[in-house]
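User: Fold this; tokens only.

Assistant: Input:
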Amino acid sequence: MTSKNLFHDILKEDRKRRLWSLALSILANFFALPVFAALCMSIYDQRLIDSLTTLPEVREAFAATVASAGNIPVLLIAGGLALINGLNGMAYLHSRTKTDLYFGLPVKRETIFNAAFVNGILFFVIPYLIFMVITAVFGYARGYFLLGSLPQALFGILYVLIMYISMYALVVLSAIICGNTVVSIFMSVIVMFYVPLCYLTVMGYSSTFLSQG
């Protein structure tokens, strides 16, 4: 058995162990993309019927809030799934029974870790890309998404993927350092939201106490 086939087998076994995490990611992306797009389209249809907006404005709104990095539900589930997938994938490090079992196998520890790490990325990336394509096709069929908005959508995809992988890597690092699931959760929340909270705090104080000019 070659090392490539061995890694593929370990990857598949780890995926079987974490099927619920994959199912959660699929369900979350389904509601954050196609379902959210359908809800937005129903609102756009009604506003067009009532002459409260125009078709170009609707197309711009769809590209900005659904098929780009401005999709708030996608950003929320990306952060939540990064936390869940990271902790779930590294949970074996926090169990003496599992570590004794896994590390007793004739497989390098790096291979076991790499398989768990890669699966945690694929669990989000694959469903996200699939449902993003479905959402774009759905929007194009309804006339709300144009090919001219494709660069904006591609930038949004890249932004979301970088955001997820970065947060996921921080959660995995926290799980490795802490060695305890409960402590890892607190550590992950701190490292994920410390910088954004500092930024928001500084901007809030700046807008309050510094003059605009």
